[in-house]
Amino acid sequence: MEMKLSNCLPTQKWCGGAPFYRQVNVRFYPLPSQRLLPASGKMRQRRSFSLQNKRQQTKKINIERPPNVDLQSSDDADSNTENMSKQSLSSSNQEISIKENVDTLTEAESSDEISYLSVDSNEEGQPPSVHLQDLIGMIRNAEKNIHLLNEARVRALEDLQKILGEKEDLHGEINILELKLAETDARLRVAAQEKMHVELLEDQLEKLKNELSSSRGSEENVLHVNNSVPLSHTDSVNSLSEEFDSLKKENIILKQDLQALKSELSNVKDTDERILMLEKERSVLESSLSELESKLAASQEDVLELSALKSECKNLYEKVEHLQELLAKATKQADQAISVLQQNQELRKKVDRLEKSLEEASMYKLSSEKLQQNNELMQQKIKLLDERLQRSDEEIQSYVQLYQDSVKEFQDTLDNLKDDSKKRALDEPVNDMPLEFWSRLLLMIDGWSMEKKISKDDAKLLRELVWKRDGRICDAYMSCKEKNEREIIAAFLRFTSSPTRPGLHIIHIAAEMAPVAKVGGLGDVVTGLGKALQKKGHLVEIVLPKYDCMQYESIIDMKALDVVVESYFDGRLYKNKIWTGTVEGLPVYFIEPQHPGKFFCRGQLYGEHDDFKRFSYFSRVALELLLHAEKRPDIIHCHDWQTAFVAPLYWDLYVPKGLDSARICFTCHNFEYQGTAPASELTSCGLDAYHLNRPDRMQDNSANDRINSVKGAIVFSNIVTTVSPTYAQEVRTAQGGKGLHATINSHSKKFAGILNGIDTDAWNPASDNFLKVQYSASDIEGKLENKEALRRLLGLSSSEIRQPLVGCITRLVPQKGVHLIRHAIYRTLELGGQFVLLGSSPVPHIQREFEDIGNRFQNHEHARLVLKYDEALSHLIYAASDMLIIPSIFEPCGLTQMIAMRYGSIPIARKTGGLNDSVFDVDDDTIPVQFRNGFTFVTADEQGFNNALERAFNYYMNDAETWKEFVQKDMSMDFSWDSSASQYEELYEKAVLRARTASRS
C-alpha cells in the first residue's frame, strides 16, 4: 500500500528574516510486525514529555518587546500553523523527498546556531530586536515542523491500523476456510483421489498460519504521538538558549527518527506484496473449497442412491427366496422326471430283449439242418420217452404257438418302425450341413426374387423350405450345384409345395455385428443372439450398413445384387446398392448408399458430425429393402439409438405401404447415448417433426425443441429390452435413466431386462487358436503354460510360479472406473502380484495419464500397460490371468466377466448392472454355494476395492486346492446365449400371438 502526503514543511532561509516553505512528498507503507523498537518509543515519549515541561515554563516568562516589533501570541502561532498546513496540503504540484526535508531541518539548525551566536555577542546582555524576532520565528518554525511530522505520523498510524484490520479480516476468513476444509476432509475420506490435493492445501494453510502469527504483534508497537505543541513567550535569553539547545538536540533525534521511519517504510512495501500473495492464495483456497463442496454434494447424492439400492437389494433377496422355492418345486418335478426316465429305461431293456429274441429266431431259420438233426434225435428220444413226451406235447405246442405269435408281432412292430423312420427322414430337417450352407441358399433365393428370376410366391415357399432345412432341397442343390443357375432354379421350383412353418422370421437392423463391424458389446449381442435363435429353428437375417472399414475377410460369399433400392431423404430419392453375404452362418444384407455425403465411407463406424443423418438414412433404407424384397417378418429387432428410427418409420410410413406383418422390438444397450438432435433434423428421413415433437412421443424430456430417438423407440416399439435385469431397475431412476426414467416407467409393461450371453464357440479355451496351449475345466494345467507365455511376451518376471497375475481388459473411460484401475496397479504390486492392462481411451487426458504410468512401468518386472486394442493379446490375457478386475461405475451388462470365467480367471467386480446379475461373492452366505463365482464390492472407492482384492489374494496364496476347484467351477458355468435367447423367443412369441389375436378379432 502506498500513500502520498503532500506537506509544506517550513524551512528557515535567512533572506530578509522571512521564512519560505518547500513542498515535501512523504510515502507511507504498512509497517511490518515487530519493526518499532520499544527503546525508540520510550525515547520519543521522554523527549515529548521534556519538551512539554519546557514549554510550560516558557509560558511564565515575559519578554520585553521593542515598540517596533509586533510579536504574535501562541494562539496566533497555532492559527498560522493551521493555515500554513492547509496551504501546504493544497499545493501538491511540487514534490521533494524526505531527504530534502531533513536537509531543510539541518539548514534551520545552522541558522539557529548563527542567531544564537549573535545574541551572545551583544555586549549589553539584551538581545537586539531583530535577532530576538528571528529567534522566535525560528522556534515557531521548528514547532510547526514538529506539528507537521506528528500529523504525518498520525496518518501513517491510521493507515497501519487499516492494514492490520484487513489482516485480521483475512485471518478470520482463513480460519473459516480451515474449519470448512476440516469438515470436508472428514466427509470425503472415502474420496481417495482427492487425498493428495487436500494435503497440499493443508501445507499451504500451515504456511499462512506461520506468516500471520509473525505479524500479529505489530499492533502492540504503535506509538501515540501528541499532536498539540503549545507555544509560549520567553522571559530571558538564557531560557530561550536552553530551549534552543533542547530543540537542536530534538531536531537531531528527529532526523534519526526520520531515517529510521524511512527504512521502516521501505519494509512496508514488502509486507504489501506479501498481503497480495496471501489474497491470491485465499482466492485459490476458496475455489478449491467450492470444488470440494460440489464433490461433497455429489457424494451425498451417491449415498442417497445407495439407500435406494439397499431397498432394491431387499426386493431382490425376496425374489431370490421366491426363486429358491421355485427351484425346490422344480427339483421335485425333476425327481419325478427321473423316475419316468427310469421307467423308460426299463421299457428300453425290454425292447432290447425282444431284439435279442429276434436275432435268435433268425438263427433258428439259418440252422434248419441242425433243427432236422435235432428232430431225428428228438424222435429217438420220443421213442424212448414216449410217455413223458406225450404228457408234455400239448404244453410244448402251446409254447411254440406263443413264440411264433410273439415273433410275428415283433416283426410287424419292426416293419412299422422302419416305415416311421423313413417318413421322419423325409420330414425332419437336415442338421449335418453347416449354417453357412442354409444362409447361402436363403440369400441365393432372395437374390432370384429381387432380380425377378422367380415369382414372389415361389420365393416365399422356397425360403420356407430352406428355413425348415428340408432335406429334399439340400439334395437337389447338391445334385445340380455344378450346373448353371437356370437349371438350379428349375430343380428348386419342383419343391414349391406348401411346407409347415417351423418358427419365426426375425430381422435384426443394427449398426454393428461381430466380427465384421464391431466397436463394443452391441456387435457381440447381434451375432450371438442371432446364432442362438437360428439354432432354435427360427429364420434370422441381419441388415447392416456397408462400411468401408469392415473386416471383409470375415464375410463369406459376399456379392452385389443386380438390383437398386431407392429411398427418400432430404426431399429427393437416392439409390442404394445391396450386397449379401454370410457372417458366422447368418445371412446378412449390406446397404451401400449412393449418396454424395458418402455416409459409411468415413474410415470409422461412429464419431462423425452428421451421425444423426447417417443412421436415420440407414434406418429408412433398411425398411425400404424389406418392402422391396416383399419380406413378411414376424419380428423387426432394432438396437440402440442408431436404428431407433425404425420404430416410428415403420408405423408412420411403411405399415400404410403394406409392410405390416412385424412387431417391433427395441434393445437399448446403454442409456448414456440417446441420439438427440434439433427437431427439424427429423424431417430429413421423411418423418413429421411437428407430429412427433410432443411430450408423449419423441420430444426430449429436457428440451422442448429437440427430439430423442431412443425415447421414440420406447414409445413406438411393441417390446423394449435392456441388457440385464439390474440395469433395467437402475434406468428407472433419475440418475440411471439419464432423463428417460419417466418414459420408461410409463411404458413399464413392455420393458424387460435380459442378461446378455457370450458366444461360447468364439470364446472357448479348448479350441482357441490364440492361446499357447488349449485347456478345459477338466484339465486346467494349460493356464500355467499360457501364464508363462504371456510373461515372456511382455517381459515380466517368471521367477515365482505361484505369483498371482491380475488382468484388466477395458476401454479407459470414466464409466469403467479409471481411478480404481489406476489404484489397482499400485495395490497389486504392494500385495506381491503382477498386473497387466490392455485397453485405450478416447478421452485424450485419460490416454495421456495412462501413457505416463505405462512409461514409468516400461521396464518394471511385475507390471505392464498395453494401451491399444489387440484381439489376440486379449485372449491370452484371459487365459493367463488368475484374476480379472471390472471396477465399473455403471455397467449395463458387461461381457468381460463372463469371458473371464469361461477362461478360469476369477472376476473382481463392483456390484452394478449386469455385473450384479452375473458375479456373486464367494463369501456371501445369502447366495447358494454353486452360484458363488467371484469377489464383489459395492462402494466405488479404494477401500471397497482393496477389500475384494485382498480377499482374492488370501484365497489364492493360502489354499491352492480350493482355488483350483474355484477355477473349475467358474469354467463350468453356462453363460451361453441359449437361456437368453429363450427369453427373447418367449417375448417374440407373445408379441406375435397378441398381434394375430388382434388381427383375427
TrEMBL record:
Q: Report biased composition (Polar residues) as residue ranges.
A: 80-96
State the source organism's domain of life.
Answer: Eukaryota
Which stretches are transmembrane? none
* BP term (GO), one: starch biosynthetic process
Disordered: where is this region? 39-96
Please verify whether the record's keywords include Transmembrane.
Answer: no
The Swiss-Prot or TrEMBL record annotates one GO molecular function as: alpha-1,4-glucan glucosyltransferase (UDP-glucose donor) activity
Keyword Cell membrane: yes or no? no
Q: What is this protein called?
A: starch synthase
The species this protein belongs to is Anisodus acutangulus
In the record, what lineage is assigned to the organism producing the protein? Eukaryota, Viridiplantae, Streptophyta, Embryophyta, Tracheophyta
